[in-house]
């Protein structure tokens, strides 16, 4: 951390600041430039987390030179984390495809989806049982009934299951049924929830918040990791920008940035990222080529009858056709795409 | 709602769409233009909430012509809502000032703050007992001990109390102690929490999310209102933009927009809105002049020792000086600023 | 400037970097922390403008600790600049109102506007003769004919004139007729144009670009100042954000930020800032209360017949009513609003 | 176009609006819903371009149901445009790579770059002779000398040339030397410049503005097309968002959106899009996989000595290695990458 003194700062200002820093158990390193004096802090950064240096007289600004996350950082964990989901590896060069309907709507709808996902060679079935909706009047999921159907589909197909958890109340319930707990964009900074997720032993897929910087996203992961749960998967699902031609702006740049800063695997969700089914195939291919660890894709047997997010869902034939392209791409890029074991 | 057909749409496409709409209990109104055919839907919009029209063949886009909120809308409630907080009116032309430290840190710190807030003529004391922090390693509040100190300060000064609730677990506890429950920006779309807030009888102050549109903010209010709790206060606290000279971009434009669309009172928070104490006085005055129902301001007896948000906190003398300017402004604008009753 | 070395940087990396810096005529100051080594550069920053330090092995990032502008900075010019427009002072506590139609459309329209502006007590008449339009098919101004009408209106009313210049071709022509040359948001980084504006002796009002940071805006002013023209006025006119309820997001936070960083006067344009006439009065009042040096407001004798921007134009009675409120506010805030001399 | 009446609109309001619309030569189609009456306009939309309908009493909002561009639209030109650059085809499934240094710095630097570009199998050499710089004190290009060196490199290698034009003054000069005229992000809405580009017969590559919507970008292309120049190439180079981990946010979503709306070819620039050399290879591969017509990549013989944008420039070996990957990818995706003729 570097503190920049204003042009008008006096020697007394500097001395007062130095005392305050030393009281916090840090060392001080002063550097006098032509226009500004800067003060470097040396020592354990956590000592000064959130300390209000700019309230000190003569202080112009505070500049952070390292990232605030530790456990999520590649600095202290250079090897990529591989999350093992009951035999399916996420991270480490294996491309994983998660697909299925936005919401679990009925046994028929889910089983048809699951079979199609399995047949196409994907490894994980997605489906929402608890749905966050911007309108209080919209369909918000089947609840436990949906979880049971997901478990039934896993039984039938051998696919692993990922589904969203929205609140602490249902943590135990959701963890009981699912293989991966998905935390949605709106809950990325639900800190009480993140703390509890750190205490369980179940992989957590953490979606990036609509306006979360990559640093904030990794800090949210840090909450889970610092609780002791090492199985965190990141998921880029689009950020909010001024552009309205797409529902969100899928930020593929986040993939190489995360790779550089962190060891955690990262998945791309082109369905929420664009909000338009017609854009999903091209953004899926880009999501693979950019080097992510896999995709999460919405697919529905009949999008025109979907109870949520039909506009961004692929049909089953569209999904199958896309999977063929993805496989060719994966090969050309020298990546693996390990399927499920044959015997279910 | 208006559906725009693509240039290539056929008569069969149109017929299929019309059937689907009629099945939903709506009437159809077709308008054939030179470039596009558009289809108007007439009837109760809730019937078609989230229906995937763009999945139908020949549909280019869906255009919403009304807002999705009802109870929060001025259309159905033309008179402004006045929230009565145990005698202090929020809304209806009375300017309310909420002030105090970011976090409750100690009895001494809080009592000194409360006395200064009371003396300056403000009506409501703010102070966090549960703090959302981006870092898992940062101070996160005194919890119930903080709530008790707030209640003690109310007892002593007659000020009303506002404090943040972060999760369902603590709803009953926080509601027991506070006069207004504050919901932070990160929880603006915590739907399970909003649903429960609709069931209690305690004013709720709902901060705008960092990247929430005004429409989404009013939809969040709709969640609370639709549960039966009519005492919702909105709070603009800055949005996230590309500009980094301020912590957030306080969006004062939101005040006249909310006034036009809704009957709910709206408060401005220049402390979080800018993140810099030096900018708080001018943005406070702008927040009054723009016609809001009041301000929420961070003030600390010693910002340089604050455990959170010291950089954006005014000192006690700065706050007193600002209050004098605010009073002059309020008068010049023909607004009221009713203080607390003299006898406590 | 501070250079942060990566955790993996070697001593050779550090030595190579130090040599490069010293070759540029700067001194080096190395500070070894627990996690990172940082390298401070001491000397004239212009020597290293744009130098690709991150291309050096072992360099993680470059952190700027001072702003890149000099002539626009308060550091080297602590007193506020007052731009004298033929007797009307902009800056230094005098509130200036610029008003008039978006485009000059006809003699009748302009004279009616000018008389109304004069009568209401404003000092400057605005009106576009050259109009930037997003559509090549839209009305783009009367050109020189419009400039002549503006000069005629000045003759008749004594008002000063501000009008937009769009390209180098018309610089001489526009400078001949107008008192202040307005540079629109889209031209804020038209560097060849800015360079030429530095060579003339005529006040320049520089609008902030739609997505320009405050630092970039001040760098654009630096272009003009560095050419020798000291009469630069800044104008905040709204930035582009995710919010669509307003045409732009008028960023009033920019006013105190500019005050802190620069000595240049700053004007607020609530008409382009919001794009909606109904929001102009409240944002105008906020624009005064925040401490700007004045406003630029669109007003039209008949907005429903305006050839451009009718939706954001006030009518003459609305403008007169707003001016009364602005005067009361200016007084309450202890600011001046010096009108034009009585004799014209 | 659809006009939405407010709830309070009267029959007289409706009649007045209808008259105004009919006077503009359009037909009116009224649709009365439960909450709102909406008015459809039928006829040539250009008649009502910019007409201030919201200034009419009882009008709540105006909703556009078609895009404002015509010549750039796929509606009226379903076949993709292929721009022929002296034998190199841009568009229509041929992948084109433009590469070279940010600025032309010397004969030696440019010739070394050109040979490396040619050898790697790219078709077009980039290099700036006129450079837009945010600082008035930074290197701004060699001017005509740079253009001459580019022409010499073309002579020597057979590569085609693309270079930036910044102002009308140099249009003739730049057009004389280059094969493609590049218009930078900051000039995307320099309307006088766009108008003149419509009058010449030379391909124009139009970069997307930092905060330009895709619709505005296509409207800028419309300016050039409407002047008669049909050879417009679009270039996505990153937009400005809240994220600061990358210099800009390369918006690959724009590629499928442009494909759907327009027939014009679109190129991706990962160098400016990310601003960090380490992210360029992965974003280049994503830019190909998403289905663009090619890439523009910055490469420098010695980035650590580059006079501009060294931080985002690949070295020659990095570029060669990336080209190999791109070729494999192109093949896997079923696209072509036609090189230059063998004989130069």
Automatic annotation (TrEMBL), chains A, B, C, D:
<feature type="domain" description="DAHP synthase ferredoxin-like">
    <location>
        <begin position="1"/>
        <end position="66"/>
    </location>
</feature>
<dbReference type="Pfam" id="PF00793">
    <property type="entry name" value="DAHP_synth_1"/>
</dbReference>
<dbReference type="InterPro" id="IPR041071">
    <property type="entry name" value="DAHP_snth_FXD"/>
</dbReference>
<feature type="domain" description="DAHP synthetase I/KDSA">
    <location>
        <begin position="83"/>
        <end position="330"/>
    </location>
</feature>
<dbReference type="InterPro" id="IPR006218">
    <property type="entry name" value="DAHP1/KDSA"/>
</dbReference>
<dbReference type="GO" id="GO:0016832">
    <property type="term" value="F:aldehyde-lyase activity"/>
</dbReference>
<dbReference type="GO" id="GO:0009073">
    <property type="term" value="P:aromatic amino acid family biosynthetic process"/>
</dbReference>
<dbReference type="GO" id="GO:0016740">
    <property type="term" value="F:transferase activity"/>
</dbReference>
<dbReference type="InterPro" id="IPR052899">
    <property type="entry name" value="Class-I_DAHP_synthase"/>
</dbReference>
<dbReference type="InterPro" id="IPR006268">
    <property type="entry name" value="DAHP_syn_2"/>
</dbReference>
<dbReference type="Pfam" id="PF18152">
    <property type="entry name" value="DAHP_snth_FXD"/>
</dbReference>
<keyword id="KW-0808">Transferase</keyword>
<protein>
    <submittedName>
        <fullName>3-deoxy-7-phosphoheptulonate synthase</fullName>
    </submittedName>
</protein>
<dbReference type="InterPro" id="IPR013785">
    <property type="entry name" value="Aldolase_TIM"/>
</dbReference>
């Amino acid at each position: 951390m570097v503190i920049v003194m204003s042009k008008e700062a006096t020697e007394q200002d500097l001395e007062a600041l130095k005392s305050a820093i030393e009281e916090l158990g840090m060392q001080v390193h002063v550097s006098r430039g032509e226009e500004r004096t800067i003060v470097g802090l040396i020592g354990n950064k956590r000592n000064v987390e959130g300390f209000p240096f700019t309230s000190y007289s003569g202080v112009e600004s505070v500049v952070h030179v390292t990232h605030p996350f530790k456990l999520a950082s590649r600095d202290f964990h250079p090897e990529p984390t591989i999350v093992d989901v009951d035999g399916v590896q996420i991270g480490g060069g294996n491309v994983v495809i998660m697909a299925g309907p936005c919401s679990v709507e009925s046994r028929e709808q889910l089983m048809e989806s699951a079979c199609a996902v399995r047949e196409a060679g994907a490894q994980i079935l997605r489906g929402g049982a608890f749905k966050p909706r911007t309108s209080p009047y919209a369909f918000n999921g089947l609840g436990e009934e949906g979880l049971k159907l997901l478990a039934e589909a896993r039984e039938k197909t051998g696919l692993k299951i990922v589904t969203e958890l929205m609140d602490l109340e249902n943590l135990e319930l959701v963890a009981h049924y699912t293989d991966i707990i998905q935390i949605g964009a709106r809950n990325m900074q639900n800190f009480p929830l993140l703390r509890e997720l750190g205490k369980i032993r179940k992989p957590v897929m953490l979606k990036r918040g609509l306006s979360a910087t990559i640093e904030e996203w990794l800090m949210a992961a840090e909450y889970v990791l610092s609780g002791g749960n090492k199985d965190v998967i990141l998921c880029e699902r689009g950020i909010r920008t001024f552009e309205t031609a797409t529902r969100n702006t899928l930020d593929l740049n986040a993939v190489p940035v995360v790779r550089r800063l962190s060891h955690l695997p990262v998945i791309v969700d082109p369905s929420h990222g664009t909000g338009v089914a017609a854009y999903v195939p091209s953004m899926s291919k880009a999501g693979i080529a950019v080097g992510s660890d896999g995709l999460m894709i919405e697919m529905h047997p009949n999008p025109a009858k979907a109870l949520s997010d039909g506009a961004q869902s692929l049909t089953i034939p569209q999904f199958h056709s896309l999977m063929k392209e993805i496989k060719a791409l994966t090969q050309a890029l020298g990546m693996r795409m390990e399927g499920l074991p044959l015997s279910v």
